[in-house]
Design brief:
Thrombin, subunit H; 6-stranded antiparallel β-barrel; mainly beta; 17 strands; 283 residues; 6-stranded antiparallel beta barrel; 8% helix
Amino acid sequence: MRRTLAAAAAAALTLVLVPGPADAIVGGQPDGDAHPYAGLILVPGEGVCSGTLIDEDVVLTAGHCTDFFDQEGFETVLVTFDPEAAVDPETWLPIEGEGTWYEASSWETHPDYVEADWPFTYDYGVILLEDDVVGIEPANLPTPGLIEELVGTTGQTGYRFLDVGYGVSTIERGGGTPVSTLDFVRKVAVQRFRPGQGSVGALDPLWFIVGNVPSSQHGSGCGGDSGSAIFPDAEGELGDTIVAVHTGGYNLGFEGEICGRITSLNHRVDDPDVLAWISQFID
């Protein structure tokens, strides 16, 4: 059974957030080479997440992805940074002889990640690759407290934020239940900081909540993209700096579908303790 790696805690928070921690970009625009360090994480024939290269052989992703790998006892995890991943959409297997793939040697989940507590937990994981990634400059980690500098104390900010990853791209209709389709293309969704009118965002200090515009122009969330990075929509070094990891969403849907989440939940990377844990894997 192929999965988009939704967490087992899918009913943990029904009042505000119905977690779909395998959220992905629906609509939006192909990203091409704008964020070359954004990668697809593939368990051949089984499931997908997204992640971001933060060192030559280290990929940052969501903790519920790496924890899921351990729970299922997977031995083979592959990562590609191709803008269009060479994956057979029918089998979810790499297409032989096509694309550039890197195999994971191991992975680690944040020691304070607790599945039963999701999303009130440390939803961070790293994947360590057997070989260095060639020809791609890793993304930057943030300075501590960067998000406060960007959004201020009132939540009013001119910044937009970009969710860059792979995953469900369309919904096929007709003949019964709508079917989610993955095209394994790296896409970007443009989002706005939305802290829940001053209350929702305060439920956990690690959360960074953004609002989606479920349209082809801006993009929204759906299944298949847990672990993708959130970047400020900015030029220069700041635009290559990860501020959060995408971990879930509010299941209202778009055009009557469960995909197309209106609000996306992300876990902050700029927390000092989180940064310290991630940084230990970087040479």
